[in-house]
């Protein structure tokens, strides 16, 4: 067994970031691939390692509400209310950017995405570092987001940056993104924080992308994808398909049907989201002909999960 890599101390992590290096950081949603957001060369290293197109903007992670004004030029009252209520937490706010925010971070757009992650280690790091950290999910472009330090190592192998190991992510899927730079405000990506929770602050909140929306890479059709082809079926057809195709693995709800191989996740949206990416990674590693995924319920609490599965279905097998 290879020795478990050591995790840097906060002081070492700060030194890496000040030196323009990359660092994988834990958050409550997924692990991020972080660099000093004021250092365009460091930010360019994120794009190179991820293989991400350079016009896709990154979220800037900040210690809290007081740091918003270092990045945003206009701060609507609703942004202050949302940050007060939901930060630190899985909510990213898109605001008009200050002119000194590097284009490398915003993909040349006039807005910036800001969020304060709810993870004690990363909040300590942000306070010690004193600036903002540009960080996309720490996976190669289009692939499954990592929810543990081990996933980040698997993702990048020898090229993995130092990883601040904060244990498994508690939420397990990416933050909800709300665009407050336009009227009316709009949800650009579904996440753990649901529309109903935002409505008291944003009564005219819209959902879904419009053609003039800024680029959100999680909004590409193919994303979060395993290498194994995937199909989604409701339970009865899933069991039939599994009987016909012995080389498949299942991702079932609640309990794995008898005489099938695979994994099951709880039939409760938040618990399912928590385990989804780890389950997809595990099933992808089994070299099956197919991953057969049981269709989750369609209620509003399942929106974020169904969004991720839909995109994984499009990209799977590529
Ligand atoms: O939970 C999360 O949000 C995780 C953790 C690490 O914080 N981060 C994450 O980053 O999911 P990433 O890069 O994989 O997805 C961020 C999304 C992208 O789809 C990006 O296009 C969008 O946020 N985004 C960032 N800045 C934006 C902006 N100014 N306008 C519109 N979309 C933006
Ligand atoms: Mg991502």
Features:
318 residues, DHBP synthase, 2 domains, four-stranded parallel β-sheet, 10 helices, binds threonylcarbamoyladenylate
Protein described:
This protein has 318 residues and is α/β, with parallel strands linked by helices. It folds into 2 domains: 198 residues, DHBP synthase (Alpha-Beta Complex), CATH 3.90.870.10; 86 residues, no CATH class. It contains 10 helices and 13 strands. Strands 1-2-6-3-5-4-7-8-9 form a 9-stranded mixed beta sheet, with helices on both faces. Strands 10-13-11-12 form a 4-stranded parallel beta sheet. Helix 1 packs across helix 5. The radius of gyration is 19 Å and the shape is globular. The chain starts with 9 loop residues before the first helix and ends with a helix. The mean pLDDT is 94. The protein binds threonylcarbamoyladenylate and magnesium ion.
Characterize this entry briefly:
This protein has 318 residues and is an alpha/beta fold. Helix content is 30%, strand content 17%.
Distance between the termini: 31 Å
Give a quick account of the main beta sheet: strands, pairing sense, barrel closure. Answer: 9 strands, mixed
CATH structural class of the largest domain: Alpha Beta
Low-confidence stretches: none
CATH superfamily of the largest domain: DHBP synthase
Widest sheet, order of strands: 1-2-6-3-5-4-7-8-9
Mean pLDDT: 94
């Amino acid at each position: 067994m290879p020795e478990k890599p050591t995790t840097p101390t906060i002081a070492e992590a700060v030194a890496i970031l000040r030196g323009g290096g990359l660092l994988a950081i834990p958050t409550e949603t997924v692990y991020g691939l972080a660099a000093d957001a004021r250092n365009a060369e460091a930010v360019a290293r994120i794009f190179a390692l991820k293989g991400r197109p350079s016009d896709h903007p990154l979220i800037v992670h900040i210690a809290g509400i007081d740091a918003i004004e270092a990045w945003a030029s206009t701060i609507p009252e609703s942004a202050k209310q949302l940050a007060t209520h939901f930060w630190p937490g899985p909510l990213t706010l898109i605001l008009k950017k200050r002119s000194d925010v590097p284009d490398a971070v915003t993909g040349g757009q006039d807005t910036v995405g800001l969020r304060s992650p709810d993870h004690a280690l990363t909040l300590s790091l942000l306070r010690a570092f004193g600036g903002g950290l540009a960080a996309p999910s720490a996976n190669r472009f289009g692939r499954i987001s990592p929810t543990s330090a081990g996933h980040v190592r698997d993702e990048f192998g020898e090229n993995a940056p130092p990883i601040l190991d904060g244990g498994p992510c508690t939420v397990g899927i990416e933050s909800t993104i709300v665009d407050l730079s336009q009227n009316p405000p709009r949800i650009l990506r579904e996440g753990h924080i649901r529309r109903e929770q935002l409505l008291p602050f944003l009564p005219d909140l819209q959902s879904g992308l419009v053609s003039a929306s800024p680029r959100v890479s999680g909004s590409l059709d193919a994303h979060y994808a395993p290498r194994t082809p995937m199909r989604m079926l409701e339970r009865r057809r899933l069991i039939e398909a599994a009987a016909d195709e012995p080389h498949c693995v299942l991702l079932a709800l609640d309990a794995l049907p008898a005489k099938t191989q695979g994994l099951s996740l709880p039939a409760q949206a938040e618990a399912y989201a928590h385990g989804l990416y780890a389950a997809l990674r595990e099933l992808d590693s089994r070299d099956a002909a197919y991953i057969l995924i049981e269709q989750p319920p369609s209620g509003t609490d399942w929106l974020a999960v169904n969004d991720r599965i839909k995109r994984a279905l499009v990209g799977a097998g590529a």
